[in-house]
Amino acid sequence: MENKGITTLNDIKTEIIETDLLIIGGGNAGCFAAYEAKTQNPALKVTIMEKAQISRSGATAAGMDAINTYIREDRGETPESLVRWGRAQLGGGPIREDLVLSNAELLNESVEMLEEWGLPIVRDDEGYYKLRGRWDISIQGEQLKPIMAEKAMEAGAQVYNRVAATNLLMAGDRCVGAFGLGVRDGKLYVFQAKATIVATGGACGIYRSPVTDYTGSHHQTWMCPFNVGSGYAIGIRAGAEMTSLEQRWVAIRTKDFCGPVDTLAVGYGCLMINGRGEKIMADRYAHLGGEKAPRFLRLNAPMTEWLEGRAPTYVDTTRLSSEESKELREDLLNERPSFVLFLASNGIDITKEPVEIFGSDPYIVGGHTGSGYWVDIKRMSTIPGLFAAGEAAGGSPNKFVGGCATEGRIAARGALEYLMGVSLPAPPADQIDREKERVFAPLLRGGAFDGVTAVEMEERLQRLMDEYAGGVSQFYRMNEERLEHALKQVKVLQDQTRYLFASDLHDLLNVHEVIDRLSVAEVLLHHLIYRKETRWEGWQTRMDYPEVNPDLDCFIESRRDPLSGEVKVFTRSYEQLVAGDRTKG
Amino acid sequence: MPPKVDREKCDGCKAENEPLCEQICPGDLFTLGEDKKARCRMPRDCWDCMSCVKICPKGALETRVPYQIGYHQAKLIPLMGTNSITWTLIDLNGKVERFHYINRGSLD
Q: Helices (DSSP H) in A41-90: which residue ranges?
């Protein structure tokens, strides 16, 4: 067993690292944050705490086949038109238009940086980036992650691979760094930082995946299953304000094997059809935008076909030529290669038969919806010294690759400004001791300990959330009593975390992942309970409140008191900065 | 899900402290078994991103679709070039297709 000979707390080494800027998570936003910080001020010490290996970690590990937002100014698009589209995609919002605008202004530059760094971006005949939708551009992005990682390292950021963030390091109400679990060396890392940026992925695995039961493979998920919400959890536990967690992202995916649908539907014009061969969006949802309807409706529409007896549901690929089929599968190889293998394993020729589609499990992902830390325009959270970017930062949905990269840069600028006037306190011995005990206790319970494994608790949580908090088995529907039941059970699970045990360091990582998922699930349930309306059918469907309630045209916020553990839920108002009908994009 | 290790081809990356698949896996799923061959400790947890397959210098790793949802024995084999990637796809009937394209630098 890989536990580095650890049998008591005294065996655990503490590694203290001082840095100017700490970036938690070396993904899309994190790499750009590091590059920006080192470019602006090469003398600064910039440190990345990375749970995996930075070359292939997180959501873009396999690659990407598109950058979903780029502003084609030659076509009359502007930062303002991106805001209008973004809020219409959310059914009129609420979104943080200030954040979206500031992001949009730097967006193209970030995308162009990627091309300069070596990312192949496809161009059209006129030399512009080739559009595959209104905003999406095609890339050959198999190497996207290695390219970003190289640039962060070349710029001089120091990367600590295989160190998973466990909690923030606090000096009173101020964040002065973070703790990390050394997954390979069994050390407790204490990063003392003048400023910290949370740039982790979002939360996958709060809910059960629809494919789990019948494949024996637990991670047939859209989002990277190793993104478990730790970035949110460390903030929640320290009392940071969270926004819009109830705005869950659920994707329409290929059925039985969670493959991309947008590549087929948006990129190649393969429309969604039902079992009778009827076009789902054009025939039934023309009044809501048809094929251009908001994403939550593009999820809810095919799932409604199942409920109303018109399933199965497909994307109709049969209109494709064999050349297009090959080109399309080449795109898929850049993002979800095993889906191409899945098709071949079933002898499916997509030009002869359509591809089945179904909804995914729900995710909390602030790079896609508005969930995450409430931040100011410089991306500082409500905890001084703690910034957020990418999936971690809330309020500005539809960031995707380009927007998360840009937000990393914006957060780095904000953090640099902040840290100039800041000095580091001495390492707080009592906080370090407490965290060491909390993190490593599950590894030290002894061979005779009769307890609970991380997998057992994870599966119990995922089934609970699926059935009681609007998972895919319930077609995303929920009601007050079910949510209250789920909250009660999450409290029991939180109490039972004291029975979790780990036999090696990988197990210990899994234990903390389930603890972090519970932190997110608890607050998520409070958000879902508070929004007594149905604003984004499919993403947030309340059977007991099926209509939009105009009084809830606002952000739902939460803050967990770090001392009492009590979660307070409140609202913030929506400020419209770009004029026009909010539902029209 | 799970990546299948060819125990004949795998040499545990003898020159490395950790085999490359262990170094690269985003899910921390690879380790060295007692036989000094790569071992996926939690096959259920693989996301099939194929990072391990791409980096393996011996071509000893293969991503498999679980039989419950994909028939035996289709294959997808990536070959990494300097600025390109070549995929060989073999479907369940043995039909071979090849995909080759630039993955770094200019497309001109």
A: 79-89
